[in-house]
Specification:
By secondary structure, this protein is mostly beta strands. It contains one helix and six strands. It has a five-stranded mixed β-barrel. A hairpin with a 6-residue loop joins strand 2 and strand 3. Pfam families: SSB (PF00436). InterPro entries: NA-bd_OB-fold, Primosome_PriB/ssb, ssDNA-bd.
Length: 115
């Protein structure tokens, strides 16, 4: 089973994008997820998690969520690799969001679709 649930704040505004051939919409953004333990000085560190959302859900995220907003995401972990322009192999790990809930903002919106 590959299931992840995260709660955190957006690091920057999401931007709606198209795949290279232009047939699919998506957005990529990073959320800062606070760790559950405190450091010796009382502060908490955060992990910065890359997230990708596809299709209509990407449009919803871009319309309603901005930098600093709190969001809960459930989805799956995806890993992959590609070659950069210099021929170096690069590895990526990201969360592909399947459902989400906006926690802060004027409107509460969910990304769960009823099929």
């Amino acid at each position: 089973m590959n299931k992840i649930i995260l709660m955190g704040r957006l690091v920057r505004d999401p931007e709606l994008r198209h795949t290279e051939n232009g047939d699919k919409l998506y957005t990529k953004f990073t959320i800062a997820v606070q760790r559950n333990f405190k450091l010796s000085d009382g502060s908490r560190e955060a992990d910065f998690i890359p997230v990708r959302v596809w299709g209509k859900k990407a449009e919803i995220v871009c319309k309603y969520v901005k930098k600093g907003n709190y969001i809960t995401i459930s989805g799956r972990l995806r890993t992959g690799s590609y070659e950069d322009n210099e021929g170096n192999k690069k590895y990526i790990t990201e969360v592909v969001a399947e459902d989400f809930k906006f926690i802060s903002g004027k409107r509460e919106q969910t990304g769960t679709e009823d099929n």
